[in-house]
Amino acid sequence: MKTTIAKVGQFVDQTVTIGAWIANKRSSGKIAFLQLRDGTGFIQGVVVKAEVGEEIFAKAKAITQESSLYVTGIVREDERAPSGYELTVTDVELIHEAVDYPITPKEHGTEFLMDHRHLWIRSKRQHAVMKIRNEIIRSTYEFFNENGFVKVDPPILTGSAPEGTSELFATKYFDEDAYLSQSGQLYMEAAAMALGRVFSFGPTFRAEKSKTRRHLIEFWMIEPEMAFVEFEENLEVQEQYVSYLAQSVLKNCQIELKTLGRDLEKLEKIQAPFARITYDDAVTFLHKEGFDDIEWGDDFGSPHETAIANHYDKPVFITHYPTSLKPFYMQPDPNRPEVVLCADLIAPEGYGEIIGGSERIHDMELLEQRLDEHKLDLNAYEWYLQLRKYGSVPHSGFGLGLERTVAWLSGVEHVRETIPFPRLLNRLYP
Questions:
Q1: 371-401 pLDDT, tens digit each
Q2: Which of 13, 113, 214, 383 has a CA that sits 20 to 30 A from residue 350's CA?
Q3: Are the beta carbons of 34 and 70 closer than 8 angstroms?
Q4: pLDDT tens for each residue of 208-238
Q5: Which CATH number is 118-417's, of 3.20.20.70, 3.30.200.20, 3.40.30.10, 3.30.930.10?
Q6: How far is it, in rounded angstroms, from Cα 160 to Cα 380?
Q7: What pLDDT does 223 receive?
């Protein structure tokens, strides 16, 4: 019976064949232990010389790291194994011998591993992170489909920018200027006026020269937009969504979380509702924490966000930022126009902002005024303005950064491990 490592539990005490690679191995004179991986998981294959004979045992001992093979054996339950199962090997068939595989079980530097990212993702730790990423993607679609959202794909090439062009990658679109998208939001607003509740899930690009553990040049965003939804309801959707992600990972990625040494108690606490603190109160709090340099009107950096987040054991919303700090499309607070109806969701444990969101301006005259204040070309945004001309309604939305969320839920320190092939300030290879 041919099967995968993930499905061996269905074949206890039966003989199966698995196509696999050798992740590692060790042996004595009489027993060889093969650490096998097949993409679906990891399992140990035990080869006993007295049971398989000299020829098969010699073949098993000689197989090198990352060689590919078919392994046949009997599935055994084993409480000590991470998956709960082990394979008593009866035969091995070499497919391809790997010679001098560069990533050995010894320690390697980060730059070396990044140069060999195409191979590094085979490792147990990277496998666990990618599986958690996949679970977050799967549960994202599940959450939005179950809550009446329609998936819409905005363009990646755009003729204008939602937040200005200073951090965009410019390109030529035949004889016009074009940019790689930093957000699909403006197009999602148009989609929301047609379909009510929508979400996008795609790559975005920031030409931002940052080298922190939180930044990537190319990353993936989930961007919902909702017609007839105002500020408070927008926050409720966000906290329900993030709670759903956390609990899905906790439920479906136990082996991966254990591999990464993640503190499960911290994930268990991530359930709505989340605390909220206004920008005003955050500034006051930071002064008490010794951040004397921050003044009202200043943006928060990583140390400020971390100090605020450390005060809570769940994500926390920072709301009502100064209008001057935020993009042109955010709705001012009607009772206090110097701040906007927006919120950043800050993850605990120093992972920073994972969501930015707001109620959007739905009044055409005010939107024209804000575009003018930001010195943006009204002609380029004519289509966007028309959304306010023909049946405008209050609407809200947000964007969640996938890689930061993967880093936080999996507990890894740097976002470069949360995407298969990271694009960093000085890295375009492999």
A1: 999 999 899 899 999 999 999 999 999 999 9
A2: 113
A3: no
A4: 888 888 899 999 999 999 999 999 999 999 9
A5: 3.30.930.10
A6: 6
A7: 98
